[in-house]
From TrEMBL:
It comes from the Bacteria. One of its GO terms (molecular function) is branched-chain amino acid transmembrane transporter activity. The keyword rRNA processing does not apply. Keywords: Cell membrane, Membrane, Transmembrane, Transmembrane helix. It is a multi-pass membrane protein. Its main location: membrane. This is Branched-chain amino acid ABC transporter permease. The chain crosses the membrane at residues 7-25, 37-56, 63-82, 94-115, 122-142, 168-189, 215-236, 256-281, 290-311. One of its GO terms (cellular component) is plasma membrane. It holds the Pfam family BPD_transp_2. It is found in: Cell membrane.
Length: 321
């Protein structure tokens, strides 16, 4: 087994085992922390598909997370206070809310991707951020859903025998979803489709001369990435039971990029490692100073300058020695 494969197994086993142990020993806070970590890791894995493997630096990925959360909160709000009954969307059924979150974010990714992917470099970065801020200010302007104050989700999604009010079951759903997301991305990047996407990252002109429509391949990857982030947002809405436009602010997109780059872009376990380090350091440093973003930035600079392949690359190399 390669060092990176062994590292992935070790990280995922520990992530599965430790949070329930903390919960059963009377420390439910750490289970909540782990649940948030796993959900953000799903969003980071989705970003890694286009950033790490596709070379598309999106500064608006948090918009998909926020839209996914609102796809849970808005139907639950109308289920409680009325409205949207004729569309069948006034509901707390997870079998409606989760597919709705995936569909809405996939559609948004398709529409925006058609425009964004006609640009590259800094122009792509800026236009993805611009679309995300458009959604941010749109949600702020809708007073029925709380505007800038946000919206409380009074009832979590109902998923048959699965009770999301139970913190262990919510963590279990998020953890299994992370495993599926990692496996899905791995299958995609190792497929013929994924090879074209990676080829378009390294040498798009050569791929075009070979007859591949790199624009179409990148667009499909962009839509898949957005839909996965939307699913993570639906989980996040159920976890926090409170959603606000702040969830889709550009700074949240920066945090997801931090996780991917720190953990190791274009690796299976990298986004998970990045999410772990981000959550742990955020929790530790925020108790010391309100300026905890400063050491985060210095850490990221150090990793980019001196650690090839991020934390995943560093740890797997040490394991192989």
């Amino acid at each position: 087994m390669s060092g990176r494969g062994g590292l992935t197994i070790a990280v995922m086993v520990l992530l599965a085992a430790l949070p329930p142990v903390f919960y059963w020993t009377g420390n439910p806070f750490y289970l909540d922390l782990a649940t948030r970590l796993v959900i953000l890791a799903i969003a980071a894995v989705s970003l890694n598909l286009i950033l790490g493997y596709g070379g598309l630096v999106s500064f608006g990925h948090a918009a998909y997370v926020g839209l996914g959360a609102y796809a849970v909160g808005i139907p639950a709000h109308h289920w409680l206070y009325g409205g949207l009954e004729s569309l069948g969307l006034a509901t707390v059924s997870g079998y409606v809310q989760f597919p709705l979150a995936i569909a809405v974010t996939a559609l948004f990714a398709l529409v925006t991707g058609l425009v964004c992917l006609r640009t590259k470099g800094v122009y792509f970065i800026m236009i993805t951020m611009a679309f995300a801020q458009m959604i941010f200010y749109l949600i702020v302007s809708i007073e029925e859903y709380g505007g800038d104050d946000g919206l409380v989700i009074d009832t979590r999604s109902e998923l048959g025998l699965l009770n999301l009010d139970n913190p262990l079951q919510l963590f279990g759903l998020a953890y299994v979803s992370l495993l599926v997301a990692m496996l899905l991305v791995r299958m995609i990047v190792n497929s013929r489709f994924g090879m074209v996407v990676q080829g378009a990252k390294n040498n798009p002109e050569r791929m075009a001369t070979m007859g591949f429509n790199t624009y179409a391949f990148r667009l499909v990857a962009y839509v898949i990435s957005g839909a996965m982030a939307g699913y993570a947002g639906a989980l996040l809405g159920n976890f926090t039971t409170f959603i606000s436009p702040e969830m889709m602010d550009w700074s949240r997109s920066g945090e997801l990029m931090f996780m991917v780059i720190l953990g190791g872009a274009a690796t299976t376990v990298g986004p998970v490692l990045g999410a772990i380090v981000f959550i742990v350091l955020e929790q530790a440093l925020s108790t010391i100073t309100i300026y905890w973003h400063l050491p985060f930035g210095l850490l990221l600079m150090g990793v980019v300058l001196f650690v090839r392949g991020g934390l995943a690359g560093m740890l797997s190399r040490n394991k192989d020695r």
